[in-house]
Design a protein that fits this description.
There is one protein chain. About 55% of the residues lie in helices and about 20% in strands. The chain has about 625 residues and is of the alpha+beta class.
């Protein structure tokens, strides 16, 4: 509350307490007062007005309130000074509170009583706040009132801003203040509730649009049903919320264009919402009507600019008339179709359309045709019916979409389960085939090893016997090699992958007796070796063949007396076989045995180095 220099209190801009809110809504539902209470206030209607139009010369007239500027001076701005004479009973007690209730005043104003300033809002010399949006209440101490009183109200109005002065109500605060609270509840608190409701529904619909897809047609595409529903409610929030903005962020008439544009956007989005709710997206007539409403929405700011900026109010009146006529026809068609199709959701929307069209006709007459000064627009409240229908449809659609999503997830889960079972069976089959293939590969390897090792030695022994040139000792040596090769092939099946030390130990165990029988001293210098992970079973067999081939060559051809086997951990494992035999020419073309050694070394990624001279031959294998 803001006290003036005279001690008065302005209630027009004070914050309404919780007690006042409750009182306000009780007064909305209950008649104002009984006849005895109504006698405690008076209506002030007779006034002398000095009017200036577009800054011209003042003209004094006697008038009866309400004074509706847009009706009397259509398409013009200006100012007016109202002088209102009234008598006050002498028996009024000085300690009793009195009040002045003004339903509408403005756009800018100042109010004087007997030469004392009661209240002022805005600047009378230029456009500013819109005080006519809300009712005003001034608390008056009884000692300021005289037997004969002069109430002076100055106003400044803008084109098309619904400026003017309504009938004034003066009397005891107990009688006048409830009237103010009733009007404040309808025009301000009611608007706040509508704005909050529309904002909630709009944001809820946009949230559904951002997270839901249209499963009925194109999977993965957002459902425009929610989008138009959300945009419609947000547009209506802007349209209705204009009442709450006394000090707009834009100058007039630019701010006046914003609510008209919001109304056009609401009409277009609501039309698209109804078309989708009715399932008419493929019907040419419905699509043509949607385009027509889109044209009306596009032209709304142009016509609002003509009416509010250039003083052509009929332009906006014609637009409102075109909108009403269009929706009268649309509501008739929609209601008839909804009744025939017996769809509960569509009937609810049809009811909302009928209510809003009927209330829209009333508001059109009250604000654009009737010369009176209406306090409030009813359509802001009837739109709640539309919002409820919209919220119901959005929730119903969301529930349907959620059910479809659950069914889709259930079907997907069933399909995934079937695929898992099929994959499991396939895996078992593949695993079985892999085991069979492994066994077949192992059999093939054993046969190949026997063919390359045992088989080749037995074949050599047969050729020796057939030729008749080989001695018994030579044939026996060949057969011993065959037997050793067979034993080593069996041993290789149990060798751990990469364990070079175990492989050398098997060779020593199998061949040591032959070296001793051949009178060759075997020197063993093998360090502790870590397994080479990269040498699998196949690589270990290749390495075994290489070492066996090298040792067999020493036994058969070197004529050595000492054989040393070295194995050290050097950049992996380095193996060396050294004998003191007769040696051979390394530069000469390699025969089958050496070529086999080279090929096997390449197969396992090893480096093979051979050097030889009489008395010292070295075969080195580097494994990394």
């Amino acid at each position: 509350m803001r006290p003036s220099k005279w001690g008065f209190c302005e209630h027009g801009t004070r914050v309404v307490s919780l007690r006042n809110v409750v009182l306000c809504w009780l007064l909305v539902c209950v008649p104002v007062w009984a006849n005895a209470v109504q006698q405690d206030f008076a209506e002030l209607k007779a006034a002398t007005a000095t009017v200036q139009i577009d800054g011209g010369e003042g003209r004094t007239v006697t008038t009866t309130l309400p004074y509706v500027w847009d009706v009397l001076h259509r398409g013009h701005s200006g100012s007016a000074r109202f002088e209102i004479l009234f008598d006050f009973p002498v028996m009024a007690r000085s300690d009793e509170l009195y009040g002045l209730y003004i339903p509408r005043v403005g756009n800018n104003y100042d109010i004087w009583l007997n030469g004392a300033l009661l209240d002022r809002e805005g600047n009378l010399d230029r456009s500013g706040p819109d005080s006519a949006q809300k009712p005003r209440y001034l608390s008056l101490p009884a000692d300021l009132l005289q037997t004969r009183n002069m109430l002076t109200v100055h106003i400044r109005t803008d084109i098309g801003r619904r400026g003017g002065l309504s009938t004034l109500f003066l009397g005891k605060e107990a009688a006048v203040y409830p009237m103010y609270m009733r009007a404040y509840g309808w025009r301000v608190l009611g608007t706040e509730l509508v704005v909050g409701f529309s904002l909630f529904v709009g944001l809820m619909a946009l949230a559904f649009w951002a997270t839901q897809v249209d499963l009925s047609r194109n999977v993965g595409r957002r459902d425009s049903f929610y989008l138009f529903a959300g945009l419609a409610e947000l547009s209506w929030t802007v349209r209705v919320g204009d009442v709450l903005v006394e000090r707009p962020p834009l100058d007039w008439p630019w701010w006046g264009i914003v609510p008209v544009m919001a109304l056009g956007a609401w009409l277009y989005c609501m039309t698209q919402f109804c078309i989708r709710a009715a399932g008419w997206t493929q019907q040419p007539v419905a699509l043509a009507f949607g385009r027509w409403v889109g044209v009306l929405a596009v032209f709304s700011p142009v016509l609002a600019c003509l009416a509010l900026g250039f003083g052509r109010p009929l332009a906006l009146t014609g637009w409102y008339a075109a909108v009403l006529a269009s929706f009268l026809l649309f509501s008739f068609v929609f209601v008839v179709r909804s009744v025939r199709e017996a769809d509960g959701s569509r009937r609810l929307i049809a009811l909302a359309i009928l209510v809003n069209v009927a209330v829209g006709l009333r508001d059109f007459y009250a604000f654009r045709v009737d010369p009176g000064y209406p306090d409030n627009s009813y359509m802001r409240y009837s739109s709640v019916v539309f919002g409820l229908a919209l919220a119901y449809m959005v929730l119903a659609r969301f529930k349907e979409a959620s059910a479809q999503a659950r069914d889709l997830l259930a079907n997907l889960a069933a399909r995934v389960s079937e695929k898992e079972m099929a994959l499991q069976q396939s895996y078992l089959q593949v695993e079985q085939m892999a085991r069979e293939q492994e066994r077949a590969s192992e059999r093939t390897r054993i046969l190949r090893d026997m063919h390359d090792g045992v088989g080749s030695h037995i074949s050599a022994a047969i050729r020796q016997l057939q030729s008749g040139k080989a001695s018994q000792a030579e044939v026996l040596q060949t057969l011993r090699d065959s037997m050793d090769q067979l034993k080593l092939t069996i041993d290789a099946m149990h060798l751990p992958p990469g364990d070079v030390a175990a492989l050398l130990a098997n060779l020593r165990y199998r061949l040591a007796p032959r070296f001793a029988a051949s009178d060759i001293e075997l020197l063993w210098e093998v360090d502790v070796l870590q397994p080479l992970v990269r040498l699998d079973a196949q690589a270990m067999r290749q390495l075994q063949f290489m070492l066996f081939e090298a040792l067999s060559n020493v036994l058969q051809h070197a004529r050595a007396r000492v054989l040393r086997i070295e194995a050290v951990a050097h950049e992996g494992v380095r193996l060396r076989i050294i004998d003191d035999g007769q040696g051979f020419d390394v530069q000469a073309p390699w025969r089958k045995g050496l070529l086999s050694l080279r090929d096997r070394a390449l197969a396992i990624g090893a480096t093979l180095t051979i050097s030889s001279q009489p008395g010292r031959t070295i075969l080195e294998v580097q494994l990394r």
